């Protein structure tokens, strides 16, 4: 199959962390927070990083701190609906305009949810072929202010699957 995860080779690329929560001096973004292109530009400028074609771009929202609280991490909203911060379609288009290879975050859904149409997933994955990585722990990178690194991950070769678990590794240049 043309979109099977089994055809994705190991990912070894330049990684960029955009610490959105840190930029706003927050431990974690509010669950209804939409990450905008203007905010992404501001964070890049503040961190002195440039997003380039082929990069893996990771958004820190601070939601990794809720990892051990599934009620908050997965279903913060009413009922069983996933709720959380992330980019909406303009933020996804900001990424695709820069021709990134993959995007990820420390949230369960990458994009601002709830949105039953999942427009960020449709745009990045289906329309542009840009991979998405979710549920990342970006706290150590953010605390150390490591905004550029070598990103490495190998997707499991699941027959017929369109996604798979990865164990990502960030390798920072030594000072």
Question: What would you note in describing this structure?
Answer:
- This protein has helices at residues 20-23, 37-47, 70-73, 89-97, 119-127, 139-143; strands spanning 11-19, 34-35, 56-60, 86-87, 102-105, 131-133, 148-153, 169-171.
- By secondary structure, the chain is of the alpha/beta class.
- Strands 6-5-3-1-7-8 form a 6-stranded mixed β-sheet.
- Helix 4 (89-97) packs parallel to helix 5.
- The chain is globular, with a radius of gyration of 15 Å.
- 34% of the residues are buried.
- The mean pLDDT is 93.
A few lines on this structure:
This protein has 175 residues and is an alpha/beta fold. It is built from six helices and eight strands, in the order E-H-E-H-E-H-E-H-E-H-E-H-E-E.
Give structural attributes.
alpha/beta; 6-stranded mixed beta sheet; two-stranded parallel ribbon; 175 residues; 6 helices
- Please work out how many helical segments DSSP would assign: 6
Q: How many β-strand stretches?
A: 8
- Which strand order does the major sheet show? 6-5-3-1-7-8
Order of helices and strands: EHEHEHEHEHEHEE
What quaternary form is this? single chain
Produce the secondary structure layout.
Layout: E1 11-19, H1 20-23, E2 34-35, H2 37-47, E3 56-60, H3 70-73, E4 86-87, H4 89-97, E5 102-105, H5 119-127, E6 131-133, H6 139-143, E7 148-153, E8 169-171
Helix pairs in contact: 4-5
């Amino acid at each position: 199959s043309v979109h099977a995860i089994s055809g994705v080779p190991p990912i070894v690329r330049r990684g960029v962390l955009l610490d959105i929560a840190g930029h706003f001096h927050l431990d974690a973004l509010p669950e209804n927070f939409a990450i905008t292109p203007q905010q992404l530009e501001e964070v890049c400028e503040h961190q002195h990083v440039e997003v380039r074609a082929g990069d893996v771009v990771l958004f820190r929202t601070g939601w990794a701190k809720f990892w051990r609280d599934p009620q908050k991490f997965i279903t913060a909203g009413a009922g069983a609906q996933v709720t959380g911060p992330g980019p909406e379609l303009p933020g996804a288009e900001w990424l695709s305009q820069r021709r990134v290879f993959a995007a990820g975050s420390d949230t369960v859904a990458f994009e601002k949810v709830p949105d039953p149409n999942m427009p960020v997933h449709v745009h990045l994955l289906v329309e542009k072929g840009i991979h998405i990585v979710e549920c990342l722990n970006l706290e150590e990178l953010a605390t150390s202010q490591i905004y550029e690194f070598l990103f490495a991950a190998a997707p499991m070769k699941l027959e017929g699957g369109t996604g798979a678990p990865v164990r990502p590794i960030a390798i920072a240049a030594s000072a």
